[in-house]
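Fold in tokens:
===
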Amino acid sequence: MAAVLQLILFSMMLYVVARLLKKRTMKLHIKELCYLLLILITGILFANIIFNILLIVNENLVFQLYEQFLIFLGIVPVVAALFYAGILITIVPYQKMIGLQEEKYFIEQQQVHAIQGVVSESR
């Protein structure tokens, strides 16, 4: 049950991220890519740890903590949703920051051209 909810949340997150990324093409440097992937990697590692804790196989005996503590059926998908939300919350401001940098670069280029025009007219 929790795996199905996580798969649904993951699919929804991928859909939303794909729509957000289609709005703007971004050229990422390796440092920026690592920054954006940090939450995703943390979420994947956390999910692996939780899975290994919740399902223990000892010889022929399988012990599932889901059966012992039903609260995990609600907590694990909520934690997964928080990681996915963290990814979205990271991408949106980053896109805005890239847009502002592009605007700043455009304004700086306009100022350089204006200054060059003034200098060439004064000669």
